[in-house]
Amino acid sequence: MSIVLLAKQPILDCNQTVYGYELLYRSETATEKWNGDLATVEVMINAFLNIGIDQLAGSNPVFINFTENLIINDLASHFSSSDIVIELLEDIPLTTELKTKIKSLSDRGYRLALDDVTPQLFWEWHEADMIKYLRYIKIDFLSIPDIRDRKKIASVIRSIYPQIVLLAEKVETIEEFNEARYLGFHLFQGYFYMKPQVMKAFEVPSYYLTYVQLIQQIDQKDCDLTNIAKTIQNDLSLSYQLLKLINSPTYQRSERINSIERAVVLLGQEEIKRWLYLLALRETLQHERTEGVDMLVKSSYYRAKMCEYLAQQKVPQLEQEAFLLGYFSQLSAILRQPLDRLMGSLSLDVQIESALKGEPSLLTDIYQLAVSYEQVNWIKIDQLTEKLDLKRAEVYQAYRQANAWTFELLG
C-alpha cells in the first residue's frame, strides 16, 4: 500500500471567488529525485482515480503542469479537452515539433496556459507567433519584483492579445492582489489566499505484469473485452480503479455493477485503453518498485476465489457477485477509509453491499465461511458448513483451490 499525496491551490477571480485549482505533485520523501514526467502522471492518476476529480475540484477547471516530453508524447489526448488546463512549463523549448504539437492541441479545443512568464519569455513566444494558441498567461510576481515591469508586461499583453486571460501567480500579500487587480489581471493565485492544500489518500498496490498483458490485448483490432475483464479482475488495484472510474460523475450512470466484465463492457475499448495507457506510463516512469505483497491484498484475492468456489456449489447465478464480495472485502482496511464511503464511490450491486455490511443472506453466509477458514475458526466453519448444507470435503477443496490460485497470481 502506498500513500497518495496531492496538493491543490485555488485560483481566484477578481471577487476572490474560486475559479479553478492548480494540482501539484507532493511526496513524503523529501530527498526523492525529481522526475517531471512522473510527477505529472502521478498527479493525474491520483486526481482522477485515487482521490476523484469531483472531490478535488467539483466542476472547476484544473491546471496541470506538462513537460516537453509529455506534450511530444500527446498525453493530453487521453483526456477530454474539458478535463484539464494544460500548463506549459516555462523551460519548454520552442522546437518545430513542439510548435506543431501545441497548435494541434489548440485546434482540438484544449486550453493552454504558459507558466511562470517573464518579459523575456513573453517576447520569445510572441516572436515565434505562438501566443495565439494560448488561453492563459501566468505572470510570475516573484520573478518580476518591480511594479513598473509588471505593469508594462500586463499592458503589452492586453493590447496585443486582448483574448488572453491574465493570471497573476505567486501573489504573496493582499497588497499584491489589489495591485494585480488594478493592473488588469483576471485571475490570481498565491499565498495571499491559501497555501497549497495537501490531499491524502491510500492507493491499492498494482503489479506491472498486468499492464503488460493488457497493453498487448487492448491494441488488437479484434480485442476481446471478456479477456480484458478477466485480466483486470486478476489485479485488485485495477479493479478498484475501474469501478471508481465508471462511477465518476463523468458517466452519469445509475446502474449498479455486479462484475468487472460488466464495467469493462460499459466503458468500452477506447475508454479502457486511455486509462490503461496513463497507468502503464506511471509504471514505466517509476524507477523503484515496492517489493513484496501486502497481506491484506493477498487476503482479498483468497476471499474472492473462495467465495466464488462456494457460490458455484450453492448459487451459481451469483458467482460473479460472490467474487467481488470477497475481492473488495479488505478495501476498507487497505485504504483506511470507512466502508460506507467506499461503497458510495463504487456503486456495487445491492446484494454485494448487503453482504459487506453483514446483513443476513446466502451471500453473507458464503463470505463468512470463507473468512472463517482464513481465520481457522473451526467452530464457525462447522456451523456455516452445516447451515449452507455443504460437505466438509467440498469446502476444504474450495479453500485449497483458492489458496493455490492466490499463490499462482502473487507468489
Automatic annotation (TrEMBL):
Domain of life the protein comes from: Bacteria
Classification via PROSITE patterns: EAL, HDOD
InterPro entries found in the cross-reference section: dGMP_Pdiesterase_EAL/HD-GYP, EAL_dom, EAL_sf, HDOD, RNase_Y/CdgJ
PANTHER family per record: CYCLIC DI-GMP PHOSPHODIESTERASE CDGJ, PTHR33525
All copies of domain HDOD, residue ranges: 204-394
Name of the protein described by the UniProt record: EAL and HDOD domain-containing protein
Family matches, as SUPFAM superfamilies: EAL domain-like, HD-domain/PDEase-like
Lineage: Bacteria, Bacillati, Bacillota, Bacilli, Bacillales
One family name in Pfam for this protein: HDOD
Domain named EAL: residues: 1-210
Family matches, as Gene3D superfamilies: EAL domain (3.20.20.450), Hypothetical protein af1432 (1.10.3210.10)
